[in-house]
Fold:
Amino acid sequence: MPLSLAAALLHLRIVSPVQALEEAPDGFRIYSDDANKYRIFIPQDWQVGTGDTKGIKSLIAFYPEEASTSNVSVLITGLGPDFTRLESFGKVDDFAETLVSGLDRSWQRPPGVAAKLVDTKSANGLYYIEYTLQKPGESRRHIYTAMGIGNNGWVNRLFTVTGQFLEEESERYNSIIEKAVRSFRLS
Structure:
């Protein structure tokens, strides 16, 4: 017997857009910074630490309790008045290529750090950049980055979210770190 529209609506769980934004996926919690106007999903059991902020506005890191070099960090720096949009740095592909090629030293003799661009995307008012770094004789480090420009009412600031893990920790941390970085939102 079909339900009436009114009866069907009673069975639905109604979630407002604000509620939907406030619910973290399973295994994650929401870290929000009202002063700096951002939020990010971080793994439920990860620790939170702050860094020395000389010369920068804010640095916060999220990392697993056990010994690991895997982490996610949020760095906030001031910007000059001529940087009002991410496009002030160029299109995402051009910016990412300049960033990664500036890190690459694999052409030197002896070879230095090898940097490889994996993917770029512009969405949600942010630039997303995925790349790898590998020092000779060391494990490859995989890096996810999200960048955005926010304003606290007085000054424009660059937000750089970086998640990283070593290749041998990929199975354990790849999807966790990617999800955390991609969840970053300016408010």
